[in-house]
TrEMBL record:
The lineage of its organism: Bacteria, Pseudomonadati, Acidobacteriota, Terriglobia, Terriglobales. Its cofactor is Zn(2+). This is 6-carboxy-5,6,7,8-tetrahydropterin synthase. One of its GO terms (molecular function) is 6-carboxytetrahydropterin synthase activity. It catalyses: 7,8-dihydroneopterin 3'-triphosphate + H2O = 6-carboxy-5,6,7,8-tetrahydropterin + triphosphate + acetaldehyde + 2 H(+). Belongs to the PTPS family. QueD subfamily. Pathway: Purine metabolism; 7-cyano-7-deazaguanine biosynthesis. The keyword Translocase does not apply. It comes from the Bacteria. SUPFAM superfamilies: Tetrahydrobiopterin biosynthesis enzymes-like. The keyword Nuclease does not apply. Its EC number is 4.1.2.50.
């Protein structure tokens, strides 16, 4: 018999730079659309990615998933690629602007492959004022009260 379903959230920190720029529009349009985030030399953030999983609480361990397994997965899939990287140079963003919204979508794609629990949400904090959530393709918008 499966135990009760619980949610687990885990946070990972990484530092990366990016430039918000669309080649298909003029330099003036890019500056107007992205402002200082269109700096030709890029700019950096200390990101915090939070992933939330759900699953039955294992009767023997009392856990939704083994944190060592999750941390190992995050190290291999997220941190080895994103930490101290220029996001524009990563294959993930070859055809997409490396906005934090697109970072959320990419992290969803990565963490959806984690085999031991169900991914429910990815949140990426870009600054103290900006955070972005992604709940998967086709998810209804959820508002926090």
């Amino acid at each position: 018999m499966n135990g009760p379903i619980a949610h687990l959230s885990r946070r990972y920190r990484f530092s990366a730079s990016h430039r918000l720029h669309v080649d298909a529009i003029s330099p003036e349009q890019n500056r107007e659309m992205f402002g200082k985030c269109n700096n030709p030399f890029g700019h950096g953030h200390n990101y915090i990615a939070q992933v939330t999983f759900s699953g039955p609480v294992d009767v023997a361990t009392g856990m939704v998933t083994n944190l060592a397994d999750l941390d190992s997965f995050a190290q291999r899939e997220l941190l080895e690629h994103f930490d101290h990287a220029n996001l524009n140079s990563l294959e993930f963003f070859r055809d997409r602007v490396p906005s934090t919204e697109n970072v959320c979508v990419e992290l969803w794609r990565m963490f959806a492959e984690y085999p031991y629990a169900k991914l429910e949400r990815v949140r990426v904090e870009e600054t103290g004022n900006n955070s972005f959530d992604y709940f998967g393709e086709g998810a209804k918008i959820q508002h926090e009260e």
